[in-house]
Amino acid sequence: MTAARPDRLRPLRYLWRSPLLFVHILIALPLALLVINPLGARIRIRGQRLDHWMTSWWSRWLVRCFGFRLRRYGEPLPGAALFVANHLSWLDIEVLHSQAFMCFVAKAEISRWPLVGWLASRAGTIYHQRGSGHSLAAVMERVVERLREGLPVGVFPEGGTGAGDRVRTFHARIFQVALDAGVPVQPVALLYGNDHRQDPAVAFGPGESFFANFLRVLGGPGMTAEVHFCTPIPVNGEGRRRMAEHARSEICAALGLPDAHERGGAAAANAED
After folding, report:
1. Which of 4, 152, 175, 255 has its CA 20 to 30 A from that of 140?
2. Which CATH number fits domain 71-272: 3.40.50.1110, 3.20.20.70, 3.40.50.11270, 3.40.1010.10?
């Protein structure tokens, strides 16, 4: 096995990006504190709520501090919609927020992550305690409430992060919220890399902590973060399992990945329907 070549530019990237990140936090954090509140929700800028605009502004610059170039394909649906995306990294929330404001459903651990957890909480993230059926039922109720209030919501139906080499089976149960609220589903494909190839360096390594991944990505090579807003799926009588399969197929097509289901995951998803 050939040993990995040392990345001699990593110290230089830390030298350049760390001050950028510090300045971003120093300037943007007080601004966010000023506007992400009930008053900011009543002020409009460019046709958007000020608190929502600020969340997207913060996220765009945070992602750029890590050396990513943002590239969007397609347009996000306006108003209430359920956005469903493949899941690779803690960066996913920030990248999606950089393109469109949405409330997220995320694992409870994220609330304790530095910066990301703070912003996610201020942006109305709904936290789910993984493995708890009671928690999931409560989360789904809150998601339906948000959608009926006219707010968009983002979820990761795989149930956890992956390596990016495939899109795992989507759990169908979460799609019930779109049926209950009567809103469309828009699949979103996320890709980190160059030449439309997913770079495995962004995803969590085996047993890697948030902080370790944060530091590793901060010093890693620059690359493109692609956000593909795929064709929306209307609520037209399809069951939630069919909607989950349709959304996953759209994301696989956008990423150029095979649309093959994992046998165990497919069985679990079918059991939910």
Report:
1. 255
2. 3.40.1010.10
